[in-house]
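ok here's Beta-ketoacyl-[acyl-carrier-protein] synthase III:
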Amino acid sequence: MYNSKIIGLGHYVPDNVVTNDDLSKIMDTNDEWIQERTGIKERRWALENSEDTTSGMGIKAAKVAIERAGIDKDDIDFIVFATLSPDMYFPGPGVQVQHALDIKTVGALDVRNQCSGFIYAISVADQYIKTGMYKNILVIGSELHSHGLDKTTRGRGVSVIFGDGAGAAILTREEDNTKGILSTHLHSQGEHAEELVLVAPGMGKRWVNDILRDNDPNDESYFPYMNGQFVFKNAVVRFSEVIMEGLGKNNLGKEAIDMLIPHQANLRISQFIQKKFELSDDQVFNNIQKYGNTTAASIPIALTEAWEEGKIKEGDVVVLAAFGSGFTWGSVIIKW
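and the structure:
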């Protein structure tokens, strides 16, 4: 069996910067309140009718990753696209990437695991490569949240948190089993599905027909709902557990971590984990301050920026970890 390794990274975010002060002009909130609770100072929101769609941003990130990987687009054997905000209800954006990049008729898989989506997508790609089925896989995490948020005081608890953007990675075979992705670890707990949820449109409860029939301006089912305190309490526990699970699988202690890149859900969660694992500021990478929570895109954006800034070097032990809606969570242990 092979290992898989990341050989190319890229990211893209919209040019439009929305600060906390900007939000205070359209809802009852302020910079101090947002920073105190989330650590976020600003985020990127795509402009209406721009090219910054979920697939469009993913394509831009993918082009950078492909170029940096030093491969041709036709060397890609498979595409995995993680998102909760596809351009269309179906089909998913994986096929849009295949078409836009003019890649031969390879398979395209869409992953719907929200905040842990990129972790799940990496795990799928890793297993395909390890079994020898594919050699080069394009993995994308991309989100366009801003067009679906309740940008009023009613929705401020959620809308101030989320931003738009995309990240991409190229995975390929690594014959040295001591290098590359060493292991991935995935979990779920569906009993808490409705603690972080977008109900409509959904076939089970409220579909488009129901929304149009009722025409109720007070219907909140088509806006995201989050039980913030409950999510936070579960996140800090599951983050710690799944990181330790990954380290234990590879006979590593917490002192082995050279770089931890957590899902950028809330800076307070990252700081809690950093303190618990006794990591320095140089061992944890956070960029939620300037991008907000970009869900499936947050880890690939952060991973790309950390690599670009020289914070990840060959031989480093890099840990990726995420927790989110589902609840789902997971980790990836990499020997860079």
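+1. The chain has a mean pLDDT of 95.
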